[in-house]
Amino acid sequence: MHIEPGLVAEGKIWLSYVTAAGAGAYTLKLAGEAIATRGLASLAARSIATTALVFAFFELLPHHPVGVSEVHLILGSTLFLIFGVAPAAIGLAAGLLIQGLFFAPFDLPQYCMNVTTLLVPLFALMALAKQVIAPNTPYIELKYRQALALSTTYQAGIVVWVAFWAFYGHGFTVENGASIASFGAAYMLVIIVEPLVDLAVLAAAKALGGLRGTPVVERRLFEAA
Fold this sequence. Notes:
Elements: H1 14-38, H2 40-60, E1 63-66, E2 69-72, H3 76-83, H4 85-102, H5 111-132, H6 144-170, H7 174-187, H8 190-207
Antiparallel strand pairs: 1-2
């Protein structure tokens, strides 16, 4: 998703600075925990990988403007499962920023709204993963229903945040509501694709057992919690 320019007036955009600062602070907390458990080199390697992937997702994968935003295949749950929550959060924020700086400067005023919309659902996904994935289950053993739950949580969170920014910016009008509904309906189609991508990537990781124990992937990918 990319929030459309002008959706939130300049005088109201301050709220996005607050929400993005909160998401950024929590990302730093997660990054500190990742460094404490696996070291700075591991976090850096995984963050570089996620940043490159996020940039490629935004630039190369199909994306279409629908209603108040754009529909993207972001694969947030895939990044979480393969690289972990802190690298995924860093990659989403950094990849989005690189795209804005070099390819879409018109998106920069909306950066804090966009980064909030990407990161907060990721944190919700992390919380859900602790509930739906048993501690003794490596991620490579996930079932379809678990991947679907994670993807649904992430995509639904994105839709909720986009709707929030749209209502915050343009109010509760019929036209605005219809535009939000069309975006939400289109975005939910991503749920059809993302769990299948998750399972395909996890199956590939399982086949490439040589990644086990390396610092470039999430430890939980192959090991129990």
